[in-house]
Write a structure and sequence with these properties.
Blueprint: E1 13-17, H1 42-55, E2 60-66, H2 74-90, E3 94-101, H3 108-116, E4 120-124, H4 129-135, H5 145-157, E5 163-168, H6 176-185, E6 193-196, H7 204-228, H8 235-245, E7 263-266, E8 272-273, H9 285-289, E9 296-298, E10 304-306, H10 310-316, H11 330-334, H12 342-349, H13 357-379, H14 384-388, H15 399-405, H16 409-424, H17 432-449
Helix pairs in contact: 1-2, 6-7, 7-13, 8-13, 13-17, 16-17
This protein binds iron/sulfur cluster (SF4) (2 copies).
């Protein structure tokens, strides 16, 4: 059997759709209403795994089971995971497995298998019941929150680790802060990843509500830190804080998520896409291979056919370059956004490298909130290192910190010193004018630290 396949040379991560069926019918899902009973072609999958392990330059690979809902095909998932491990061993590789799930299924056997096989499990839960049930419904229209909540308790009772990811729609925005408190106080989950449903109408009012909700979340995270000494991970905001406080490495500049470069997704019929999201469910194999985003497929002899996808070519132009539109953007200065999610861009603008306005506004809000987060931490005398565990920084006032962000270190050092003195007098009674001036000093310190 021919195993040489240049395609996999640079590939570190793959996602495989085990099925296109799903137990839910969430109205914002990019596969919405197209849940057919198609399952992964196992001979193609096995060929793909063997070629990947044989050809990849990476020794540690990452495989995510996708769908539809992958746990509908739990028996196949178990069998194929075992198969992958054997093949990985044969080629001296290791594979870390993950699965993204709606959380509708959680049998004892499944949870044990997840634990035994270290499957990084990401459960979609959009917050409190009022928010989650607006969109994440069973095909009969009933909300799924009660079932997911019960199943998350099973994960917790059996000490099966999991993460939570929330999608924020415009109509669930007003519940964001309540949802955050629910994760912390009821689920005892202290990491909070969220991303917007860009298909919604993200108008000025929506972004205003988002900002209000994030302000409350940041204040609450600080309260939790002060009262319980727990650093809540506000995932995307924390990423921005870290990006603000640590300079980007040169290699970090050009490859936002790896889609189309180190990461690809395979559909049930063996067609390959720059990532899982480019693949549209409800299409026949013949229709799929005509799509300009389809990267390649396996023919009847299990030979890989490269389709010279123009969409992939577009995505790859981002690797050695920064998109013109992003060159002068403040976001690109700190984080590797460089066009944002190319799949969402493609869906909503028709071009993978055309930035989506709602994403640009969203990214700028996250960056602003990250700055405010730092400012509020300083004001509350919480050490930045203690909160974020940033390597290479002793605390908010160390030399390393100053030299990274301050073009005029002596001035910043003075302001930092002044800020520390102000913070030390937090408990004293002060006039309104004093408070105003002190806040100005603190704000100025942060602005200088962040080179604003
Ligand atoms: S926020 Fe927009 S303009 Fe800025 S880097 Fe990201 S995609 Fe580019
Ligand atoms: S292109 Fe978008 S959907 Fe695909 S992996 Fe990257 S961020 Fe995720």
């Amino acid at each position: 059997m021919k195993l040489q396949n240049e395609f996999y040379k640079n590939v570190k991560a793959m996602s495989y759709d085990l099925t296109e069926s799903c137990s839910l019918n969430c109205d914002y899902c990019f596969t919405h209403s197209c849940h057919e009973k198609k399952v992964l072609d196992q001979s193609i999958f096995k060929k793909s795994i063997e070629e990947w392990c044989c050809n990849s330059i990476h020794n540690s690979l990452e495989l995510t089971w996708w769908g539809g809902e992958p746990y509908i095909e739990f028996e196949t998932m178990k069998e194929l995971t075992k198969y992958c491990k054997e093949i990985a061993t044969k080629y001296n590789k290791s594979i870390a497995f993950g699965a993204t799930t709606n959380g509708v299924q959680a049998s004892d056997e499944m949870l044990k298998w997840i634990r035994d096989n270290n499957i990084a499990t990401l459960i979609s839960l959009d917050g409190i019941k009022e928010a989650h049930d607006k969109h994440r419904k069973f095909p009969n229209g009933v909300g799924s929150w009660d079932v997911i909540y019960k199943n998350i308790q099973k994960f917790k009772d059996t000490k099966t680790s999991f993460s939570i990811r929330a999608s924020i729609s415009v109509d669930t925005l007003p519940y964001l802060f309540e949802s955050f408190k629910f994760y912390i106080n009821e689920l005892k989950v202290y990491a909070f990843a969220f991303s917007p449903v860009h298909e919604d109408d993200w108008n000025d009012k929506a972004f205003e509500i988002l900002e209000e909700q994030l302000d409350k979340i940041i204040d609450y995270a600080i309260k939790i830190k002060k009262e319980k000494d727990i650093s809540v991970d506000l995932y995307h905001i924390n990423q921005n804080v870290k990006a603000l406080l640590k300079p980007k490495k040169k290699d970090d500049f050009f490859n936002p998520c790896g889609a189309g470069n180190t990461f690809f997704g395979m559909a049930v019929d063996g067609t390959i896409w720059p990532c899982h999201r480019f693949n549209k469910h409800g299409l026949s194999f013949e229709e799929r291979i005509k799509k300009e985003a389809c990267v390649g497929y396996y023919d009847k002899d299990l030979t890989y056919i490269d389709l010279k996808s123009p969409v992939l070519a577009d995505v790859l132009t981002l690797l050695p370059n920064i998109n013109d539109h992003c060159k002068d953007c403040i976001i690109q200065k700190y984080i590797n956004c460089n066009t944002g999610c190319v799949a969402t861009n493609y869906d909503l603008t028709g071009c993978s490298t055309k930035c989506l306005n709602s994403n640009c506004v969203y990214q700028k809000i996250l960056l602003d909130k990250a700055k405010e987060f730092i400012y509020k931490l300083l004001k509350n005398d919480i050490k930045i290192l203690d909160y974020f565990g940033l390597q290479g920084m002793n605390n908010a006032t160390c030399n390393c910190y100053q030299s990274q962000f301050n073009p005029v270190p002596e001035i910043v050092a003075k302001f930092l010193d002044l800020s520390r003195r102000i913070i030390a007098t937090n408990d004293l009674e002060k006039t309104d004018e004093q408070i105003r001036l002190e806040n100005e000093v603190l704000q100025r310190t942060v602005n200088m630290l962040l080179n604003k």
